[in-house]
Every structure is written in C-alpha cells, then in structure tokens.
TrEMBL record:
The keyword Transmembrane does not apply. Its main location: nucleus. The lineage of its organism: Eukaryota, Viridiplantae, Streptophyta, Embryophyta, Tracheophyta. It is found in: Nucleus. This is Nucleolar complex protein 2. One of its GO terms (cellular component) is Noc1p-Noc2p complex. Coiled coil: none annotated. Residues 1-16, 623-632, 662-700 have a biased composition (Acidic residues). InterPro entries: Noc2. Belongs to the NOC2 family. Residues 1-31, 618-740 are annotated as: Disordered. It holds the Pfam family Noc2.
Length: 740
C-alpha cells in the first residue's frame, strides 16, 4: 500500500470525525476494519495513532477509545475461541519434592499442590468446562506420574489432614466429627478433606481394574467418618460402594463390605438404614437367576447374604423395622398367589361343580406360582432365615421367627408335586434351622412324610438310571428326570436326612415319645409298600435309631412328678443337652458325612464357572490388614482414565468419516444413496458425556461435587462395544419379470 493511499484514507477518517458523526459508530467501523484488514489496522496503530484517539461530542471528558476497543476485541476473540488455560505438566521430580516437603516440614503449600495434582489425576481426560481460564492448571503427562500421585495421596493424605484438623489419629464417631466442624481448624482446612474425598469418589467411577478399585476403597475407608460432614457426598459414596459390592468378585467384594460396615458403625442408624436398603436391593438383583444355578454363583450369593446378616447385627433395634417390612412384602406376594388359587376353587363350588384344574387353569396358576417359585423369593427367605438364626437369642429379632416360618410353610405346601421337591427341601431346611436356633417346635415331619406318599417315589422308576441330581442347585425338575432312579434315590435320602435332623432337635426332650409316634407309624407303612431293598434298609435304620432314643427318654422320665408345662422340664436331661449327645444325633452326623461326600463328587464332575469367586470365602480379617506394597502393586500399570467430551467426539467424527468412506469404496455407485440412508450414526456417546462440575479450584478449596454414577459407566462400555464397524452387504438387484 502506497503513502498517497494512506493519506487519502486518513483524510477521509478526519472528515468523518469533524462532521460530528457518533463516536460509537466510528468505533464499530474501526472494529470492522480490524476484522477485514488487520494489517492495515496495525499500520494505522503504528504510524497514525492519533486517528484512533477521538472524542465524543456528547462527553466532557476524554476517553481512550483505542485502548477500550482493543480490550473489547480481545475479549470477543476469547469468548468465541475459548482459549484453554496454560497447562503445566507434572513431573516426577515435582511430585518427589512435594512429598519431601510434606513429610519433613508439613508444608501446607505442598499439601495443596499434591491435592491439585490428585485432582488432575482423577480428572484426567475431562473437559475443562467452566473452569477458571485465568488460573494455571496442572496436567498428568505419563502413567508413572499418575501412579506416584495416587499412591502417595491415598496412603498419606488421611493422616496429613487429620493432623491439620487436629482430629483423632484414626477412626472417629459421627458425634466427634460434628463437633470438629465447629472448630477454627475445620473452617480453615475442612475444604481440603472435601477435595480429597470428592476426587477419590470421582476416580472410583472411572477405574475399571478391580485391584485399583479395591486399594482405593481400602484407603478411603480410613477417612469414612468425615463423610458425616458432607451428606450429599455420603449418599454418592454409599451408592458406588454398594455397586462394587454387588458386582465385584473376590477381594473387591470384601473391601466394599468392610467400607459399608464401617460407615454403619461410625455414622449411626441414619446411615445404617440407607446402607441396608441398598444392600438388600443389590442382593435381590444378584439372585435373579434361571431354573438352575452354578456352584460358584451359589457361593457368591451365600457370601452376599452373610454380608447382609452382618450389617443387620450392627444395630438390631434399628434394623427390626426394616426387616419386618421386607418380610411383610414376602408375605404379601404369597397371600396374592393363595387368594388367586382360592378364588378359583370358590367359583367352581358356587357353580355346583367339583373343582378340577383344566390345562388353561394350570397355565394361569403356574404363572401365578412363578411370583413365589423363583430364586429371588427363595433366597430372600434364606437370607432372613440366616438373620434370625444368627440373632435368634436377641429379643429384637426373635418375634420375626413366627411370621417367617408361616411364610416358609405356605411356600412349601403351595404346589405339592414331586417336580418341586427341590424347592420344598430348601424350605424344610430353613424350618429346621429356625427351630434349632430359637428352640421352638415347628411341624416339619408332615411335609417330609407327605413326600414319601407321592406315587413317583413309591413306584419303581421307569426312566432308567439317569444323571446324578444336585437338589441344592435346582428349584424344579422336568417330567423325564422324575422317572429316573437317581432322582428317586436323591429324594428319599434327603427325606431321611431332614426327618432325622428334625427329630434329633427334640431327642433330649421329655415329650420325644409323643413327637416321634406318628412319624414312626408312617415310616413303617412306607417300608412295607416300597419294593427297593436299599430304601427299606435306610428307613429301617432310621426307625431303629428313633426307637432306641425314645426308649432312653422313657426310661429317664419314669418317676418324674412335674407336668409338661412346668418350668422344671428344662432340667430334664440337662447334662445330655449341654453335651449334645444322643442316639439320634450320632446317626445324623453319619448321614451328613454321606451327603457331603455325594455333594463333593457332584462338584468335582461339574464345571465350575468363575471359580475365582471362592476367594470371598477367606477370612474378612485377611483383607482388613494394612499392606504398604499393595498400593505400588495396584498402581503399577500404564492405565489412565478415559478421555472425555471433545476428545471422544473428535474420535467419533473421524470414525464416522472412515465408516462412510469404507462404505463408498465397497458399494457400487448406483447403490450409494440407498446405503447412506441405511447408515445409522448413533449419538449415544454424545448424550452420555454430560457436563461435570469441578470438585476443587486451583487453590484446593471446597466446591461442588459431581453426580456421576456407576450405571453410567456401565452404559458407556455397552455403547463403546456397539461402535464396531460393520461392512454393509451389497443389495441384490431385483430381476425384471418377463411376461411370455
């Protein structure tokens, strides 16, 4: 551009100003000039600066328009482009220096730096969102730095923050923490504890390695008591820990349970109710199975049930109301099925007809039975049976034994067919456990003896030998299995064992003769009808043991002067009761050993899927011990959290372009439009990447926590798996019909 052109344009500018045009309009023109020709604008700024400095006629004071204009332009450019703040990479030397300062001098500045680094590690890959653009951010550049920061903070930060807050060295109750929140130290450093716990919660939702999750939960458990000061964060922790407890395997399940139990013990009844509701729901969801169940799954369900039982023992008076509510729900389901069956019988009688189930009626009733005859319902009964047996001596849980036993008896007699004998056997075992734990008599013998009178067990088998049947892993059998010899043997052996177990509970009772009279009569009758010699021998052995036992009790009660309802009855055979010795109890031990051998042989022949779940059977105390090397072993891989938001969307756009290009290459030109119309570009990943609030500022202060959930992480995995490329099949051209 020549000097003459410059002078002409500058003259035009001066004439506009002198003509009294508005200063704001002139500023807008200069702004447009800067956007269209930035080189010329820079030339005017350097050579003719006075042209950019002008006065508004309506103003009395001078205004530096050029400076304001430059600031407005820069702010607009920042608003449009949203420049990212400067990210300072974290190195291992920086982390080592911070760790040395914290250990040697207790430097507060180093503590804040470590928490900032911890925040950067936990939020690695997240979008900046509405973060403070003017502040400098720390960034993780390698997995070694990530591992070093995570291990040190998780191992040491609890003790460091307890020292700053002047809190107890370990543990602490809810009352202690609430008193601590009123102190000056909490107002100054309480936000640091929120930052630490909030970021640890965030990384728990991102990690996929069970060893990392297990170590993180174990270390955060030391600071669990401080969650009493942050109710919203406490609810989020309970939710994510319950998820890891219900979906994890091995040590992860144990560590999650210890975290939940520690919360219930330290934070009181309010936290206990929330935890118990969530744990019970997770237990029920794990019990949703098909007709048969594997041995490993049974072990897992049994362990989860033991965990729920342990939580119920933390505060029995507070748990009683919830336990009563859950048992009442089970009773309501059973009552609905019984009332539906009863209405059908009543309607038939009103019509003057004898009730007889048709095929359609049977199908309807089977659908109604499935509400009760499913694994979820049965395992819930077993759970509350375990709770009552464990705390049967406690006055709080003892009243629940009667309604629960009534429900179990109703379930056992709902469908009196041999196909559902495995389910009836489970119910009988539950009743025997309740009777033994509470010392109350439950009439179980009638349920067992009615089974022996079914024609499938009295007549010879017609279906051959058949496969060995494990009655504990199924709830019903098919019609072909009922006719086999192996199923008949399993049923009769189970009846003999459970009947002997029932009678052995009262083998030292003064009324044993009256209790065993009817069972003996029916056993002798069955022994005459059955033709198989091996079954008759089993039943005769049981009859001999029962007769020997009532002969012994009758000889001891001769000459007794008290009545059966006299409290002095408790003194009858007191020595034998304390020793647990009787003729029948020794016979029951031998039956148990035989059953255990048969069960072990079935387990050895079957294929156990997920055998690693048996790790849960170890002692809980083994996982509660401190291990300094565990953190280094857990965070020793090259794992980093997944990238989110813009980074994921950019990758997705590239994948879309590649997919379309591959489709264009694979299909013929004339079919190109149809193929593109059939291509579905899913936007699930864009929807699932939600905006997240930052948990802390760059100075390490208190801030809001995010509402991420584990369910979202599970959905993300499914969506990622559905993004696999699929090659389209070329469409076939329709052949034209030729008319002859």
């Amino acid at each position: 551009m020549s000097d003459s052109e410059d002078s002409d344009i500058s003259g035009m500018e001066n004439e506009e100003i002198l003509s009294g045009s508005n200063a704001k309009q002139h500023a807008q023109q200069l702004k447009l000039l800067q956007e269209k020709d930035p080189e010329f604008y820079q030339y005017l700024k350097e050579t003719e600066k006075e042209l950019l400095d002008f006065k508004d006629e309506g103003e009395d004071t001078d205004v530096d328009v050029g400076t304001d204009l430059e600031e407005d332009v820069e702010s607009d450019l920042l608003a449009e482009g949203k420049k990212k703040p400067h990210v300072k990479p974290i190195t291992t030397s920086m982390v080592d220096s911070w760790c040395r300062d914290v250990k040697s001098r207790g430097s507060l500045r180093a503590v804040r730096s470590l928490l900032r680094a911890f925040r950067a590690a936990c939020h690695y890959g997240d979008d900046d969102g509405d973060a403070d653009q003017s502040s400098e951010k720390l960034g993780i550049i390698s997995s070694s730095v990530f591992n070093k920061v995570m291990v040190f903070v998780l191992n040491e930060m609890d003790g460091i923050l307890r020292t700053l807050l002047k809190a107890p060295e370990a543990g602490g109750k809810k009352e202690t923490i609430m008193e601590l929140t009123t102190t000056k130290q909490w107002k100054t450093y309480g936000g640091l504890m929120r930052v630490y716990l909030g970021n640890a919660y965030h990384i728990l939702n991102q990690m996929t390695d069970e060893q990392m999750i297990s170590f993180t939960i174990k270390r955060v458990k030391a600071s669990a008591a401080f969650l009493a000061a942050f109710p919203s964060l406490l609810r989020k922790y309970i939710k994510v820990i319950i998820h890891t407890w219900g979906s994890g395997r091995g040590p992860l399940t144990v560590v999650s349970f210890l975290f939940l139990r520690d919360l219930c013990v330290r934070l009181g009844s309010d936290c206990l109710e929330t935890c118990l509701r969530g744990v019970y729901k997770a237990y029920v969801m794990n019990c949703k199975l098909s007709k048969s169940v594997s041995i490993s799954k049974l072990q897992q369900i049994q362990f989860l049930g033991n965990c729920v039982t342990e939580i119920c023992g933390v505060d029995p008076p507070a748990v009683y109301q919830l336990a009563f509510l859950f048992i009442r729900q089970l009773a309501t389901l059973l009552r609905g099925v019984l009332s539906e069956k009863g209405l059908k019988v009543v309607n038939e009688k009103k019509k003057g007809k004898k009730y007889k189930e048709s095929k359609s009626t049977k199908k309807q009733m089977e659908k109604a039975y499935q509400k009760v005859y499913e694994w979820q319902y049965i395992f819930c009964l077993e759970l509350w049976t375990s709770v009552i047996c464990t705390y049967g001596s406690d006055t709080d849980f003892r009243p629940l034994a009667y309604p629960l036993s009534q429900i179990i008896q109703g379930v056992a007699g709902l469908v009196p067919t041999v196909r559902y004998f495995p389910l009836r056997l489970r119910c009988i075992r539950m009743l025997n456990r309740i009777a033994s734990a509470t010392g109350t008599f439950i009439p179980v013998s009638s349920l067992l003896l009615d089974t022996l009178e079914m024609k499938e067990l009295r007549s010879p088998p017609t279906g051959g030998v058949g496969k060995a049947v494990n009655l504990l892993s199924i709830k019903q059998v098919d019609k072909n299995t009922v006719k086999t010899r192996s199923f008949q043997e399993a049923c009769i052996h189970a009846v003999i064992e459970e009947l002997a177990e029932h009678l052995s509970h009262w083998s030292r009772s003064v009324s044993f003769f009256e209790l065993s009279f009817i069972p003996l009569v029916r056993l002798r009758s069955f022994c005459k009808i059955i033709k198989a010699e091996r079954f008759r021998k089993e039943i005769k052995d049981l009859i001999r043991q029962v007769e020997a036992n009532y002969d012994f009790t009758n000889s001891k009660r001769v000459g007794i002067g008290f009545s059966p309802n006299d409290p002095a009855v408790e003194e009858f055979l007191r020595a034998e009761k304390e020793n647990g010795e009787s003729h029948l109890s020794e016979f029951v031990k031998s039956l148990r050993e035989r059953t255990q051998l048969m069960h072990n042989s079935l387990v050895e022949k079957s294929v156990i899927v997920g055998a690693e779940s048996s790790v849960s059977g170890k002692k809980v105390s083994e996982y509660d011990e401190e291990n300094e090397e565990e953190g280094e072993a857990a965070f020793s891989s090259s794992w980093l959290p997944e990238k989110k938001k813009s980074q994921v969307l950019e990758k997705k756009k590239k994948n879309k372009k590649r997919t379309i290009e591959e489709r264009e290459d694979d299909v013929e030109p004339e079919e190109e439009d149809d193929i593109v119309e059939d291509l579905v570009l899913s936007s699930d990943e864009e929807d699932e990447v939600d905006g997240e609030e930052e948990l802390l500022s760059d100075e390490g202060g208190d801030s809001k926590s995010q509402t991420a959930s584990k369910d979202g992480a599970g959905a993300k995995k499914q969506n990622n798996s559905s993004r696999k490329k699929r090659k389209p099949k070329p469409r076939r051209k329709k052949k034209a019909k030729v008319s002859v």
